[in-house]
Amino acid sequence: MSRCRRVAFAALTISLTTSLVPAQSPTKQVAITIDDLPLGGDGSPCDFQSVRRMTARLLEPFIAQRVPVTGFVNEGRCRDMTPRELHAALDMWLRAGADLGNHTYSHADLSHTPVAQYKDEITRGDTVTRAALAGRGDHEVVERVTQAYVPYLESVVAFFEGRAREVAGHAFPQILLLHANRLNAEAMSAVLRMLRARGYEFVTLDQALQDEAYRLPDLYAGPGGFSWIHRWSITKQMKPRGEPDEPAFIDEQYRKLQQRR
Prior knowledge:
Elements: H1 3-20, E1 32-37, H2 48-64, E2 69-73, H3 83-95, E3 99-102, H4 115-124, H5 127-136, H6 139-168, H7 182-197, H8 205-208, H9 228-235, H10 248-260
Parallel strand pairs: 1-2, 2-3
């Protein structure tokens, strides 16, 4: 058989084989929504502690299986809850990654409610929900910031590893100052894994401060609340070295946030 015929035969075989494979059916998809937040009219107690327990149990499978969900809120449904308690209940949904929508204040029936009154239902039903959503920000931006945080933090750690040796003349136990916020709550496991991967072991603050580096003179006096390593380098009149900048989109989001305040 000639080479041309072999190529043609192979192409025909591939074509026939492909045509004999059954076409894959489209993946079935479903979006789940849950109405009547914080608690539907099933006769259950509508106080905050009861709602909190029910909400935690309801959201657990969505969180565990990473299933998106949207909840629609009737802010006037649970009269036993204060606005602050309702806000806290809705925060549970938002922390689980859910989207929230306005389901009117008291679940009014449009078929039996005058238009003006129904419009008022929508307006009244948006107060606490809007405040809760405003406090959570854009979910995609939050996810992007969280994903960028540990790589950025590692670049800062790497910078100070080198700068510490330049300033003190030797490697010494570092002190990593973090803040109590949602970002660190989300990322702390990854932060600790990153530090271990870089060869760090964890010690107490008192143990770290035993190193002689922490007795270097610090003559800086000014408004800058920066690292001791920078302060020591200023005291030694060393050429300054800037630490890594945060990702550009972080600065952009921060400026937008400041403009809204």
